[in-house]
Amino acid sequence: MTPGTKNRLLGLTKELAADWAVTKDAWRDAKAREFEQQYLHELQAAVNAAVAHLDALERVLQQIREDCE
Fold first, then answer.
1. Does the pTM exceed 0.70?
2. pLDDT confidence of 25, banded at 50, 70, 90?
3. Which residues contact 47 (CB under 8 A, 6 or more apart)?
4. Domain assignments of the chain as residue spans, ordered by start
5. Please, where are the H alpha helices in 1-69?
6. CA angle at 47 for the pair 58 and 36, rounded to the nearest 5°
7. Under 8 Å between Cβ of 44 and 13
8. What confidence category does residue 1 fall into, taking pLDDT thresholds of 50, 70 and 90?
């Protein structure tokens, strides 16, 4: 994953969180809490895990590049 791609993924996730904060000000019921827990918390966890795995993959690929030089 290039740094630009990683930054874009993280930026879009941050933008979604900001948009949700605005939405949550107007939508304050049990369904809003359910939506946040079911989708947004899980999405954030998945993005964090994906970024960590992609960082690890990038380190492996970098090592392969260095070994092949």
1. yes
2. very high
3. 9, 10, 13
4. 3-68
5. 3-26, 30-35, 42-68
6. 175
7. yes
8. low
Distances 13 to 34, 36, 41, 46 between C-alpha atoms, Å:
19, 14, 11, 11
Tell me the H-state helices in 27-41: 30-35
Distance (Å, whole) CA 50 – CA 63 = 20
5 touches 57 (CB < 8 A): no
Is residue 21 within 8 A of residue 36, CB to CB? The reply is no
Instruction: Say whether pLDDT at 2 is over 90.
Output: no
Tokens representing 50 are 């994906």
